[in-house]
Amino acid sequence: MEEFPDILLSSLIDDCIGRGLSAKEGGAVYDIISGLQVGIANAANSLYALKTTIFDNKILTKEEVLQRRFRQIMLRKWTANQKNIIRSP
Q: Has residue 21 got a pLDDT over 70?
């Protein structure tokens, strides 16, 4: 099986372009262990989901998305705060 260099990953890592090597070929200044491309894919998927939900299919408005997200954040903070109160001596 032939392997191909990860062009997107290598273009985002210091000195791969300058050295003319992919990250897998040793072009990176620092050795990476985790996959940087996973975060980029997750961000792209999230943006696409928002675009589809808000603009294409018009399932929710921007305001509804923000309001739901705000509620989730506040509920998470409240729940974490309640756990801290219960654990404190």
A: yes
φ/ψ region of 9 (left if φ > 0, alpha if ψ in -120 to 50, else beta) reads alpha
Return the ∠ at Cα 51 (arms to 46 and 53), rounded to 5°. Answer: 90
pLDDT tier for residue 48 given thresholds of 50, 70 and 90: very high
Length of the chain: 89
Mean pLDDT of 23-51: 79
Q: Where are the beta strands (DSSP E) in the chain?
A: none
Cβ atoms of 10 and 22 closer than 8 Å: yes
Structure tokens at 25: 């070929």
pTM: 0.45
